[in-house]
């Protein structure tokens, strides 16, 4: 089959899956499963088509002029092939887990989840293939609708409805910014075709550049428009979170790459603003992820951090373009692509395995998930690999991508503009801090969910082989792609060919198995050799130590746990989610706006033998206390004085100080609009008459 035929077949599979779900609904297990089988088939077809297009065997589907906005096609060039391949691979894993998840009671009551899933994958495919602004925006709005349906899936829950509306509002603002940018480019080129926009220059080019980047930044969650991500992702059901984060969000990065290829050199101020905003996004995202007590919100905030890291690489490429440094452009784009691949694989692994862990434990609270990963080896292993990838540890693709990101920041001395150099330096400091806290955050996550000791036993149901395969694919990708990083760079180099010359990005290969940050002689890394050497060294070390200690090294020694140097402290000595994160709350107190208070409790609340209490802990295992998340109840044995609650919480700065103050004026505006919408026909006719007169007056004035 040709690439065009593969794409057409995939779109037909997705359309059939959506139609079947709408007609048959979720009444029977069969009608719930088959639509996801269609999504799985489409994902495999898209992956094959993407790899073919990246290798130079592209294709196109001619849509003609029937849409009324000029001639349009779906074109699979190498850049589209790169994103199609990534979409297909991650969607395959998600669809496999969806097939198993569709059998659970969580999927039974609602119609439309498979439809929203199919529409989202189809919209992503059309966005990356479109060569016409109208087709692009149509698919963009379809993706916005699918986000609304996924985030608001549990529509009997008020919070889910709010999350759906919240997500949809930001998606619409993204589409609005893109509409203005594309309209400006159309006005200066007379065409809706992307290929005709290369000639736009001057102020129109700069304005359209900024508006388009702003529109794409909303989708990927760059400050100050990142607030929708934790709410929207956490509200989505099961594997749909992986679809939104690891698949659909990538269209924002695709748009950035494509705009750079179309509009060329950006204004310097845009590169400065974007690199600072990206670095702040990374730091804010990981800071909030580090203190979350809910698993899904933690992973969602991590998506904010990764969006900032990917955008930072892109911003460095813009800085290189503004400074006319072709090698720095290649390094920035390659870095952002490496980070995007790592994020897609790791987030697929994390969100999919987290859905399985939550389903078995019946909760997403970290303290209640203690040790659950050890009881579910397939999900637990996938979860650990995804977390360690986002921590940037060696032998994972996250280590390679973060190495490249830090190396690209270190090239600031090549920038002759002092403004650009200082902005990249400031961003580099924030990125380094974010990368460091990411390691702590995900080590904490693995410690609680996998190595958390004896947690509550959960009734484990054996996962089907399809679910296991879906969990294994992204996890294997996290370590397998790292081992063949030179091949990955060659693949990305071909995909970036429409934007940057392949010979520039291939400068990242010092030799077939040794990498460098494009610039020769700066530094080197060989992930492939690390994948061989580190396991061998680990085995040799274990053997030598075992021989020296005569096997006692492997013996298990059980002793009472050290609790405290203070007498009279009773209760569980294990660290809680709050305990792990409390240091971060104070170290990053200026970023998180940490607030603490000490409140006396009634004597009856202060009784009991618990050191920790609060909503993090399971009902019945700790005394009840009316305290906020992260509160600590200190109960001293034999004390007659009331206990005290030390509570601490953090503030989402952007939401608290930017969006919430706007709610009052917005409500007043809505109230005014309601007064105008009186429901009287004569009033509406009067409004239409005023609009017609105003339009005639404008036309006459312009004539």
Summarize the structure in words.
The protein is mainly α. Helix content is 65%, strand content 4%. The protein is built from 25 helices and 7 strands. It has a 3-stranded antiparallel beta sheet, with no helix packed on it. It has a two-stranded antiparallel ribbon with strand order 1-2. The radius of gyration is 27 Å and the shape is globular. Residues 565-571 and 603-641 have low confidence and may be disordered.
- The strand count comes to 7
Oligomer: single chain
Looking at the structure, what is the overall shape? globular
Strand order of the largest sheet: 5-7-6
Distance between the termini: 56 Å
Number of helices: 25
Overall helicity: 55-70%
SSE-based structural type = mainly alpha
Provide the gyration radius in Å. 27 Å
Please give the largest β-sheet.
Answer: 3 strands, antiparallel
Strand percentage: under 5%
- The overall pLDDT, averaged over residues, is 85
Low-confidence stretches: 565-571, 603-641
């Amino acid at each position: 089959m040709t690439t065009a035929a593969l794409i057409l077949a995939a779109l037909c599979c997705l359309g059939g899956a959506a139609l079947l779900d709408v007609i048959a609904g979720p009444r029977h297990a069969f009608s719930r499963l088959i639509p996801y089988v269609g999504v799985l088939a489409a994902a495999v077809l898209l992956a094959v088509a993407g790899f073919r297009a990246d290798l130079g065997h592209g294709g196109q589907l001619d849509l003609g002029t029937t849409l009324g906005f000029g001639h349009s096609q779906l074109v699979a060039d190498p850049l589209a092939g790169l994103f199609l391949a990534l979409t297909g691979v991650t969607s395959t894993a998600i669809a496999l887990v969806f097939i198993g998840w569709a059998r659970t009671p969580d999927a039974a009551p609602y119609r439309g989840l498979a439809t929203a899933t199919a529409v989202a994958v189809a919209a992503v495919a059309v966005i990356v293939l479109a060569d016409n602004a109208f087709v692009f925006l149509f698919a963009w709005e379809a993706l916005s609708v699918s986000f609304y349906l996924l985030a608001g899936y549990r529509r009997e829950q008020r919070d889910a409805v709010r999350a759906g509306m919240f997500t949809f509002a930001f998606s619409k603002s993204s589409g609005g910014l893109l509409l203005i940018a594309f309209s400006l480019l159309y006005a200066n080129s007379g065409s809706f075709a992307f290929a005709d926009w290369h000639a736009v220059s001057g102020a129109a080019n700069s304005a359209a550049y900024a508006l388009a980047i702003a529109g794409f930044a909303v989708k990927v969650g760059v400050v100050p428009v990142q607030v929708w991500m934790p709410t929207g992702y956490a509200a989505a059901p099961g594997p749909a979170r992986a679809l939104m984060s690891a698949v659909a969000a990538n269209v924002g990065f695709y748009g950035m790459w494509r705009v750079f290829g179309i509009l060329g050199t950006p204004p310097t101020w845009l590169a400065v603003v974007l690199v600072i905003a990206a670095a702040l996004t990374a730091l804010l995202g990981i800071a909030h992820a580090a203190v979350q007590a809910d698993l899904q919100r933690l992973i969602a905030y991590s998506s904010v951090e990764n969006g900032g890291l990917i955008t930072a690489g892109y911003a460095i490429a813009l800085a290189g373009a503004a400074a006319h440094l072709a090698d720095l452009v290649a390094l920035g784009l390659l870095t952002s692509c490496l980070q995007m691949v790592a994020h897609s694989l790791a987030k697929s692994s994390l969100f999919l395995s987290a859905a399985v862990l939550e389903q078995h434990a019946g909760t997403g609270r970290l303290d209640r998930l203690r040790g659950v990963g050890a009881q579910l080896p397939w999900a637990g292993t996938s979860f650990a690999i995804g977390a360690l990838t986002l921590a940037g540890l060696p032998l994972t693709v996250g280590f390679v991508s973060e190495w490249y990101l830090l190396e690209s920041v270190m090239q600031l001395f090549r920038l002759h503009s002092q403004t650009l150099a200082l902005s990249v330096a400031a961003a580099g400091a924030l990125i380094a801090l974010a990368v460091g806290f990411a390691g702590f955050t995900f080590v904490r996550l693995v410690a609680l969910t996998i190595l958390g000791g004896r947690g509550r036993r959960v009734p484990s149901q054996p996962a089907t082989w399809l679910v296991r395969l879906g969990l294994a694919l992204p996890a294997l990708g996290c370590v397998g792609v790292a081992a063949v990083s030179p091949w990955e760079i060659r693949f990305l180099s071909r995909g970036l060919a429409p934007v940057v010359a392949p010979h520039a990005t291939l400068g990242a290969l010092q030799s077939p198995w040794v990498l460098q940050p494009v610039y020769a002689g700066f530094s080197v890394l060989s992930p492939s050799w690390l994948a061989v050497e580190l396991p061998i060294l680990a085995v040799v070390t274990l053997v030598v130590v075992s021989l020296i200690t005569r096997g006692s090294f492997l013996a298990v020694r059980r002793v009472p746990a050290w609790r405290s140097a203070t007498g009279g402290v009773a209760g569980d000595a294990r660290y809680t989610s709050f305990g792990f994160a409390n240091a971060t709350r104070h170290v990053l107190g200026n970023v998180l706006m940490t607030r603490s208070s000490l409140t006396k409790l009634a004597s009856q609340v202060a009784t009991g033998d618990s050191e920790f209490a609060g909503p993090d802990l399971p009902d019945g295992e700790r005394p009840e206390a009316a305290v906020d998340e992260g509160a600590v109840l200190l109960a001293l044995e034999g004390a007659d004085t009331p206990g005290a609650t030390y509570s601490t919480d953090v503030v989402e700065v952007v939401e608290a100080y930017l969006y919430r103050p706007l709610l009052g004026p917005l409500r007043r505006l809505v109230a005014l609009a309601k007064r105008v919408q009186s429901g009287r026909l004569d009033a509406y006719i009067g409004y239409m008459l005023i609009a017609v007169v105003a339009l005639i007056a404008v036309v006459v004035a312009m004539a």
